[in-house]
Every structure is written in structure tokens, then in C-alpha cells.
Specification:
- By secondary structure, the chain is of the alpha/beta class.
- Helices cover 45% and strands 12% of the residues.
- The protein contains 15 helices and eleven strands.
- The strands form three sheets. It has a five-stranded parallel β-sheet, with helices on both faces. The protein has a three-stranded mixed β-sheet with strand order 1-2-6, with no helix packed on it.
- β9, α13 and β10 form a beta-alpha-beta unit.
- The longest helix is centred in the middle third of the chain and has 28 residues.
Length: 401
Amino acid sequence: MVHYQGVRYAMPAKACGLPATLPLYPDRVRIVCAGGKHDVEHPRVPAIGTISYLTGQRAQQLAAVYSERKRLYYMRERLVELGPIGEAYVTELVHQRPHTWKGCIARLFDVLEAMGDARCRVVLDRPLRPTAPPLPAAALPAVAPPAVAPPDLDEMLKRLALPTIRRLHAELAVRAEAEGMGYRAYLDIMVAEEIAHRAETRLRRAVRAAQFPALRTIDDFNFTFQSALRRQMLGSYLGVECVTDGRSAIFSGPTGTGKTHLVIAIAYRALQHGYDARFVSADVLIGELSHAARLGSLDAALAPYLHPHVLVLDEIGYLAHADDAANVLCRVVNERYLRQLPILVTTNKPLAAWGHVLHDGDLAEAMIDRLLERGAHFEMRGRSYRTRHLKETDGDTTADA
């Protein structure tokens, strides 16, 4: 609306909030804004308190209103703006027809758009019959009122970032109509599909962020071949307790016995429970932190390994580590221990040999002590799963070290 000398002149909804200029003429008012993008002429209205609408302006403004409740409020207010006649009619309509007045308001608004203010006042300036429709058939205009375009549902769902509902709602609506599905059941299905899609998307992103060399699950592990371990022994590590209780674990044993498979599977379960994880080989971690320590930026280099809920540290002792391996690795273990965040470790060396592998027996013992205070040590035994075909024929089940 543009207010000038007590008169309000309607403008398109997209012009709301834009500055405007008003060239005045004896018989009309011209309103220009946005460099001429919106150029509207109204008849010059001398009466103070008058509101001037051009044909179709109310319908355009209504089309920009999305909420059903706000649309009803908008239509009612336009009828009240007709003056005492409109206000009295709407008030009486709400009191006499408490269950149907909303539909009557919509029909009256269509009549207002089709007939204009003056003729609509004539229609409303008559008693409202309690048992009759609000408008006699003879009072309706000969031409049909202009159709108001419904809000674009796809666009609204896009703005709300609901891609699954946007993709499925039309197809499900056809199914709901065919099956006589209720509104609540329809809504339940749509919301459940959206939640499932979001959970699946979050899990895919979490797996990429974890940087697993390959995705492994606990269901893929061959517990028959690896007889030193039973699935029941991993019970708490497959639930939320792994993170909530800060339960670390060390998997030790020869190559090919499924150590890396198991730690990835446990970390993947944590992702499924809504947590995040990070996989890194011990050699990469120690090399990165050693380099950062020499540059004086160790604290910054530690951050990516302290924030994830689960840290998988693979292959301690497989390769020769730097001389300061124990110093930098102990920082990671100790910080995560203090924050009660679990570390899942694999190694092919006995725990007693960590002092030699990491070049500091005291720090190696301190790290093992912190890892096992709330954790467990699983010793894997047997021959390599990778080379099982050299001695016997087995199924196609796969495992990793």
C-alpha cells in the first residue's frame, strides 16, 4: 500500500518495501517504483480514509499468501475494508454461521473481485438469512470470477528443503485417493519417507568423511573362520555404549585375521547410531603429527583426530615409526582419554613390544593403560583369511585384516 494524504493506493505484492514516486494529475495518481518495473495508475480519490484497488490486485496479493489461515484473514480484511456495511456483514456472518463462514468469506471475496467495491456493497447491504446462503443466486455476476492461482506446492517444498516429499507427494496422493487413505496416514508416510531419506543421506556423508579404505560391516565378518572371537564378545561395541561410555579397543594378531574389518565395522555402527568417525593409519598419523611438531603447529594438527566420536587407528607397528612416535601418539591417546572418546586400534605386534615399536617403553605402557581402562584387548589368531584358498576352498565371503 502507498499512503498519500489519508488515502491508501494498492500496489503489487512484489513492490512491497520499495521506494516510490507519485506524479499527481487532476483525475489520477501514478505510482512508479523499481525504475518503472512497477507502474500503476489509480483514479484520484478525494475522500480521506478511502482504499483504492485496481481490478485483479486483491487476487494477486492473495496469491502471494501461502498459509491457509493467513489467506482467510486476508480475504476477511478486504471485505471489512468496504466500510461499515462490509464490517457488519462479516461480523453477522461469523456469528450466524460458525461452522461454514470460512467458505462464505472465500465466495464473497470472489464476488468482490468480480463486481468491484460499489456493487459488492449493494449485495452486502441486506439482512443475512440464517438458513440461506450468504448471497442470492440473482446477485451473482454474469461472468465467472477470475481464478486465483494456488500456491506452487513444489516451490514451497523446495524452500523448506523437503526433497523427498517434493518428489513423492503427487504419486502418493493418487495412491491415497485410490485406497481411501486418511490425511493422517498420508502425512505419516510422507514424513517417514523424508526422515528415512535424510538418515540415508547423513550416513553416506558420514562414511565419506570417515575416510574408510573400504566399507566393512559386522554382518560380513566370518566368525566361523576366526574362531578366536565370537560376535557376543563385541556386544557393547556395536551399540551406543561404545561412544557414550568411551570404550576403546585393541585388536592384535597376525595379518589377515580380520582386525581392520572389525574396527571399521564397529565405527560404521557408530555412524548408524548418529555419531561420526575418522579412520587413519598409524604411520600417516604419526608422520603428520611429527612434521607439525617440528613446525611448532602440533596443536592445530591434533584437532582433526580429537573431535570425531570414534577414531580408528590402524596398523601400529606394521611400518617403522619416527623417533618421536610415542610423544605425538600419546598426545592423541591422552586427550581422547580425558574426553572419554574411544579409539579402536589394530596392531600386528604384542602389546609388550609397543615400547620397542614406538621408541619409548614408559609412554607405550601409559597409552595401553589408558586404552584398556574402559576398553578391551581382543587377540586374533589363526591363518590369513586372504590366503585361505591356498589350503582349502571356501565361500565368497570377504574379510579384511
